[in-house]
Write a sequence for this structure.
């Protein structure tokens, strides 16, 4: 486990710092992150130009349909997807389920989505994400939620939306709300460091999540 | 096309340059220099090919367009790519061999100071001198590993491998100066681009 802002090794390098975590999010801008459930899907996504894949056991629409408890994906499945592609691989863990997050970190995934799509493990608290070396992305409905997640250590922010319904208006509403609060904050001259972070992270995710519709692959959220 | 172009725009404008996002062939007209940003090299080359930019960009750079390539941009430029996708097409202009994600996955991404030839600690202008004057803050994110260098000038080495190379008017870096507030490399690039 890393310290709050990365671990220093012998030759002066630091791993797991916030800069490196948010940096990967910055590299994903303008790209599409595709939900995949098999290594074959992952390869199709990569061949189609996806900039990352989200390794899942079931896509959100199926999770909704089937009900029951939705948990982290099978580690074997995640490993096989990681072996299938060269682009970054993300995986979801339940909200507040830090042990699932530790497992995902040990597997070596490139990003963890602490996701409301899965059944929450803790209704009070999210994971304390600072001690992890792997970066986290979290959902938000407005700037307040975004800032709480960033405060807990999230390196990328996405909108929540209503996953798996096909109804994108929720995601659009959350994006509009978050961005308008950011604009209002910056106009009123309260340009705190936090709101800047939120703005750039939220901006990032807006560009990555929007064009995710595809006929061949399950769509994102 | 895809990646951290916004950060480069900010850095270049901070270095006094005017910028334009290159998305079509026409955008290339009248440029003094071009930046190939970080991102996913597979995505970028695919998009460039699809919109018909791969060839025009290759020609422009071959004809001496000043070029700054970071991370994925370096892979796009490299002559040999290992661990890429089968049939990953690049520009093949820079005489180096790179291994994609050669330093490992995100968990192995790191920050480390880098000493760069020709970039001295002369950034006194806005008082932001690097911590010990000479070092440049290197941010490496799923960075490519340079395994072979041909006819290029190595500007910086980290852990025995080149991390910054120059070939004519091309500068390619494994790390991301655009993610830092240190504008020395971007200033140097603007200087190079405007002195033609």
């Amino acid at each position: 486990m890393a310290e709050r802002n990365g671990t220093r090794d012998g030759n002066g390098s630091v791993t797991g710092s916030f800069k490196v975590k948010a940096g990967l999010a910055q590299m994903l801008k303008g790209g599409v992150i595709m939900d995949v459930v098999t290594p074959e899907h992952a390869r199709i996504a990569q061949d189609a130009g996806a900039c990352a894949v989200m390794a899942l056991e079931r896509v959100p629409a199926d999770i909704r349909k089937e009900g029951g408890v939705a948990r982290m994906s099978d580690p074997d499945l995640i490993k096989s997807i990681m072996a299938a592609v060269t682009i970054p691989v993300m995986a979801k863990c339940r909200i507040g389920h830090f042990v699932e997050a530790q497992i995902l970190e040990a597997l070596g995934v490139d990003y963890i989505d602490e996701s409301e799509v899965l059944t929450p493990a803790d209704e009070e608290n999210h994971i304390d994400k600072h001690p992890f070396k792997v970066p986290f992305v979290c959902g938000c409905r407005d700037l307040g939620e975004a800032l709480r997640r960033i405060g807990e250590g999230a390196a990328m922010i996405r909108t929540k939306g209503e996953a798996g319904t096909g109804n994108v208006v929720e995601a659009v509403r959350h994006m509009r709300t978050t961005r308008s609060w950011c604009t209002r904050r910056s106009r009123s001259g309260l340009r705190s460091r936090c709101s800047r972070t939120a703005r750039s992270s939220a901006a990032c995710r807006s560009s990555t999540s929007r064009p995710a519709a595809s006929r061949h692959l399950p769509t994102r959220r | 096309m895809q990646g951290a172009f916004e950060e480069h725009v900010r850095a270049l404008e901070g270095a006094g340059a005017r910028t334009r996002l290159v998305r079509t062939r026409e955008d290339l007209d009248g440029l003094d220099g071009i930046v190939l940003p970080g991102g996913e090299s597979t995505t970028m080359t695919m998009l460039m090919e699809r919109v018909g930019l791969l060839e025009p960009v290759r020609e422009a750079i071959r004809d001496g367009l000043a070029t700054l390539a970071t991370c994925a941009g370096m892979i796009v430029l490299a002559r040999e790519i290992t661990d890429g996708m089968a049939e990953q097409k690049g520009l093949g202009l820079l005489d180096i061999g790179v291994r994609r994600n050669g330093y490992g996955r995100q968990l192995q991404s790191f920050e480390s100071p880098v000493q760069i030839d020709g970039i001295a600690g002369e950034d006194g202008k806005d008082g932001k001198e690097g911590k010990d004057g000479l070092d440049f803050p290197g941010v490496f994110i799923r960075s490519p590993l340079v395994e072979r260098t041909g006819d290029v000038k190595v500007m910086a080495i980290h852990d025995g491998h080149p991390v910054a190379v120059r070939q004519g008017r091309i500068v390619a870096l494994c790390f991301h100066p655009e993610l830092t507030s240190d504008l020395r490399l971007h200033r140097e690039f603007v200087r190079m681009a405007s002195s033609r």
